[in-house]
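Running this now, will post back.
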Amino acid sequence: MKIPSASRIAFQGERGAFSEEAAVKLLGEDIQLVPRPTFEALYTSIVDRAADYILAPIENSLAGSVHRSYDLLVSSDLHIQAEVVIPIAHYLIGIPGAAFDRITQVSSHPVALAQCEKFFASHPAIKRVATDDTAGSVREVMAAGDPTRAGIASKRAAKVYGGAILREHLEDHPENYTRFLLLASTAEVAENADKLSLVLNLAHKPGSLCSALNCFARRNLNLLKIESRPIPGAPWSYCFYLDLQTSLRDPETRAALEELKEFADSVKILGCYPQAKV
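Update: finished.
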């Protein structure tokens, strides 16, 4: 995807985070990277004039959807312009000169720790410590200068903070990927867009979901994903996220969306963009 040179891209976490790696893979090294401490701060980056675009994690192939990211996206006025998928490889990173057999404590984000269960099972004497961020755990290890401590993070984090890689590929499953969305304040549909994301609010009526999905099925439009989420302020009511393999440029898709209005209380298009290749 082409964006203006030196555009500011906000991501959640610290320098060296997987989100930073994803931003560089999608947009190249010429971008300006803008770390943001929380998802809330991330999603206000454009309004706060801190960034021109936002790169947000939305789904991991093992851990599932990033629900906070989904909820903030729906409540925002942001639009999906692209997506990128990166493999998640976990590295054990200590200070220069550290030796693996001296490590007694390993820190990282809880999801990263949970994805390295086999490593911890093989080394029961090592204490695991949950932190807010994978890359941040490496930064803290480097600042402490303690050769008995290490962090689990990306290979990029080791480079950013000058850490030493003590072990590679700690992840339990090699097929571990995270999908990220590039978000902007404007809606654009690229010529090669082939994926559509939307969110529906449906009435509590028998068959309402079936009727809504039939708008796409009868036109042979492929449903890639469906997920329900609670609607804030409306207990036991749910919205549905849909990803479809299609484009808003397709007349059949536009017809399906028009028919969908008969069965949905509301329909919000989150974006139409090129589907990422793994």
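The first strand starts at residue 8 and ends at 12. More later if anyone needs it.
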